[in-house]
Every structure is written in C-alpha cells, then in structure tokens.
Amino acid sequence: MERKNQYVLITGATSGIGYELAKQFAKNGYDLIIVARDHEELSKKMSEFKEYGINVISISKNLFLQDEVYSLYSELKMNAISPEILVNDAGQGVYGKFQDTDIHRELDIINLNIIAVILLTKLFIKDRLPKGSGKILNLASVAGKVPGPWHSVYHGTKAFVLSWSEAIHEELKDSGISVTTLLPGLTNTDFFNKADMNGSKLIEDKDDLASPEEVALDGYNALMNGDDTIISGLKNKLSVAISNLVSDSMVAQRVAEMQKPVTGK
Q: Gene Ontology cellular component (predicted)?
C-alpha cells in the first residue's frame, strides 16, 4: 500500500456505510479524520484504522448543532490540516406519519442531514479552492428520488442533498474540486433502529438489504472517477428508472404501501 499523505474527513465514520468508506480509504493509504458523537466508538475505530499504517485523528462532535460543525473545522485549521477529501456520511431518519412524529427530532434530522452538510461543504470548498484540488462525496439516497410517506422528512432531506450536490458539481467543474453523490438503497446498517423503523414492511426481509461494504466500494470508485452521481446496486437503478416513468402521486401511493407498518395500522 502506498501512503497518500492526504487526509479524508468522514462524518458518521464509526458505523454503517461511513465506517466501510473509512476502511476503503485506509486500505488505499489515505490518512483519516473520523467524526462521530460517541467517544468510545471513535477510540475503537481509531485503533482499528491505525493498523493500516496511516495517521488517524478522531474528533467527537454533535453535528446536530451548527456551532459544533464550525468548531470541527476550526480545530483542523488550528492544526494546519486541510483535508483533500470530504465525505458527508452522517444522517438519520424518523419513521411514522408526519402528523404523529416529534417535530424537535425532525428539526434535528434536518440540521444533521442538510445544515451540517452545507456548512462542512462550504468550509471545505473555501479551503480547497485556492489549492485547486479536492473531492467531496455526499450521501444522498434513492429515497431522495421519490416521495416517502411514513418517512417524509428523511426523503425530503435526501432530495435536497441530491439536487444541491448536482448543482454545485456543475458550478465547480473547472475548479479542480469534484462533487459526487452516492445514492444507496436499503442497506444493512443501524439506520433503521435509529429511525424506529423496524416495524416497517419495507425491511421485513433483512436478506434483501445491501451490504454497506458493497455500497461503500461503489461510492469510493465513483468518487475516484470524479462521477456526478452513483446509484448503488442494479435493483436500485431499475427501481429509480421505473419511478421516473410514472407520476409522483402514483409513486407516493406505491411507497406508502411499501413503507407502512407490518400491522397495517
């Protein structure tokens, strides 16, 4: 393995797709800045990633809070660290009808899935533009391609991430900075537990879930190629293609049926 001597900043790096992405970068000789809230998990993952012979910095931040996003980048600047790659992986959802869900939790999700991503990307771009190089990987979702009854705020946030990422990809095309958006489908991570979604028909059969390692590899390769977007998995590509052929209202009805509780309530 050849050391790249370049830092990759990864949010949500201690579990799921973020963890698998961190492993991909570590295997390929990149130094890591891993960000999550859990100190203990960060410490474990830092020890694990160091076994690849790379430098690893762990930073505990609560990215629901704007001040902590700013302080994350301030710490890097104070230590004269300019990441070459930014991976905005951290994200959450909440399951249930919008009329019933907790608005405070939903505002936290919007802060994490949108506001933190915008802030980190803005700070990264401002830092990297004078250097004329950099890569950004934003985690959207195939959920961002369709309306999502029973999971409406999550689908909405991922629709924003996808549209906005494609826009800045175009704006930055002559700058040396690339923006790639990864669209996973249903993936075998802790996401569904955190979203209180285990009662949904959508995940009755856990064997249908993609492996986070496969999704991460798709994202890593697309990022290295400078691709605009990548839908991970043939099944998801076909699903998105079919959704594009019918009206949004018909898609919403179909998704509502797929995502409703197993009990049918």
A: membrane
Q: Which CATH number fits domain 7-259: 2.40.10.270, 3.40.50.720, 3.40.250.10, 3.40.50.1950?
A: 3.40.50.720
Per DSSP, the three-state class of 135 is strand
Q: Which two tokens stand for residue 262?
A: 């197993």
Amino acid at 229: T
Burial class (CB in 10 A: 0-12, 13-18, 19+), 156: buried
Cross-strand bridge partners of residue 183: 231
Q: How many CB atoms lie within 10 A of CB 78?
A: 8
Query: DSSP assignment, residue 131?
Result: G
Q: How many CB atoms lie within 10 A of CB 129?
A: 14
Give the separation between CA 71 and CA 102, rounded to whole angstroms.
28
pLDDT tens column, 100-127: 999 999 999 999 999 999 999 999 999 9
**Sequence letter at residue 211:** S
Under DSSP, the state recorded for 29 is T
Based on its alpha-carbon atoms, the radius of gyration of the chain, rounded to whole angstroms, reads 18
